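Box 3.1. Reading complex inputs
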Amino acid sequence: MKNKYLALLFMTLFMGQVCIAQTNQTPIVEDFKPSTVNQPGQEYPQVNSQGYARFRVAAPQAQNVVVSLGLGGAKGGTPLTKTDDGSWMGTTAGPMDEGFHYYHLTIDGGVFNDPGALNFYGSVRWESGIEIPAHDKDFYALKDVPHGNVQQVLFPSKSTDTSRRAFIYTPPGYGKDTKKRYPVLYLQHGWGEDETAWSNQGHANLIMDNMIADGKIKPFIIVMTYGMTNEVKFGKIRSFDIKPFQTVLIEELIPYVDVNFRTLANQSNRAMAGLSMGGMETQTITLARPDVFSYYALLSGGTYKPEEIKGKANPKLIFISCGSRENPDGVKNAVADLNAAGIKAVSYVSENTAHEFLTWRRSLRELAPLLFK
Amino acid sequence: MKNKYLALLFMTLFMGQVCIAQTNQTPIVEDFKPSTVNQPGQEYPQVNSQGYARFRVAAPQAQNVVVSLGLGGAKGGTPLTKTDDGSWMGTTAGPMDEGFHYYHLTIDGGVFNDPGALNFYGSVRWESGIEIPAHDKDFYALKDVPHGNVQQVLFPSKSTDTSRRAFIYTPPGYGKDTKKRYPVLYLQHGWGEDETAWSNQGHANLIMDNMIADGKIKPFIIVMTYGMTNEVKFGKIRSFDIKPFQTVLIEELIPYVDVNFRTLANQSNRAMAGLSMGGMETQTITLARPDVFSYYALLSGGTYKPEEIKGKANPKLIFISCGSRENPDGVKNAVADLNAAGIKAVSYVSENTAHEFLTWRRSLRELAPLLFK
């Protein structure tokens, strides 16, 4: 079990660092616009309609500036070139995959963030982010629809002797009708990320708001908390042990949420899902505590085998997804095996995406309508 | 009126950039510890018991690295020196004031954040932050007490044709007792900051949690939203006009909050406060709409004159504060004038602090028990 974790965790690490871009010899279209996740008023980084990313960084006396995104150099990344005005500029060698990517700058041998971009917690640090507009970006856009809230909750955790943080999405109208109760999805981030990821990088709240406004789903609550305990936040992945997190989630967070939010506090109205390492956590915890959740979802985070479920757990639905650049056959085959064994399971493959957030945004969009039927 | 704004706004800018440190010839005590607002697992920047800050930045091929904090160089700031292992190190020339400071690095002529520190929105960008532990830091510490939540709200704004963001603090127990209603404080940030400042830099939620746990205040809601409209977020301060924000606040946000939160929706249970530019906004809006708020508070953000109040507004209380390194006499004299005119007013001066967040954390601590009596 431990080796399986490590293998998958390192796959996550590896895929997080190698950005998949396609080399492409068609001319670059000069319609670059600022990335939608730039800091206020910042012109760079920019993205064009083909998905190329262009960077501009002011550092007049620097010797060397490289962006970790793209395929430009021998080691990957996009080397920037000094221009006459003292800034460094460069464009990725090919278009990037649609969606969100983490990146950073290496300036004279040191790692820094791009001052033009907003920061997102990934790779165990606040990294720069860039958004390549996806053809289907509408489903996670901020629109003029009723919006739910995302609230920071500090809940007491005796097992870790700390106040721990969760972010909780409550659907539109939650504050108005103070009698209505809702099902709950517990939704986990990946390795190197934290409890901010599903809102900041994933736009989980906007995906929900839009689907609720479209009448595609019934409203539910989403709870997002940090999926590691103690020092693992600091990168010590070898010492990762899921049991302390299982205790936090099952013994501390769920009871806290059920007291402080208007939940339907029972197994049939509770789901767990996670991406990458969060998928592995979901797999382990749902099987260890089959009495707690009724819906299980693994997003680029492993599979279930029929023998792990049969006679041991009775989920209403299992959902397994990944990007087409990951292991789609593995996902489809796992779901076929589950279905053959009489277990209700659904697969989803995100087209032309890898182990990145567009895969998971789309996975949440596909998962949400299947929950709490 | 416009010139007065500009003068105060530029004062804000100026004081935000010059960090007040005292030169000090006593030996530096080698008890440096990582700043409490470092990124997870990061050893630097560090702070010692005297308030000196020490920086360490890896950039082996850089020519020049300067920290904008401290008084080391001709232009201010702390120049770092290259060490044998390729990292750059340096210590401020003297102890820093207690509390929170923004800073950034200048590396080979470019402005970047310190990869060791968390980022905070100030100076119209996400800046690095460092915390010099204050002797009274206990009042804003994260403690094992019941915690309120801070929720991100996206509210519709017809006047600006956008979904605008507010963060709303609800006190401990808000989710449990779904009948209780609360007074509301509308609390504004300063220029170059945004709606994240009072929670991230100010710890407004922890200050409230601790005072509620100690029985020092009755619980109330705090609403924090972005105090500018349109492109001013991008630094175009010369075009600043308060009216669009007044419309957002009075016509859009307050009604939204009163519908979606369990407020006591009347003038006597509504307060407005702000720091620096937010104080100027508070002054203007409370006087323009004396029917809306009953408590007015200016934190390092101007004063009221008796003739502005008498016969025009009837506040239950005016609170005016600043740091001792700002203009304490101006604050005290203004409050004396108000009291002499029969207007209930209270002043507060934060000892040994300037135009920075420890002044405002302390001001909130002093203000909160005076509200909603």
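In summary: Residues 243-260 of chain A form the longest helix (18 residues).
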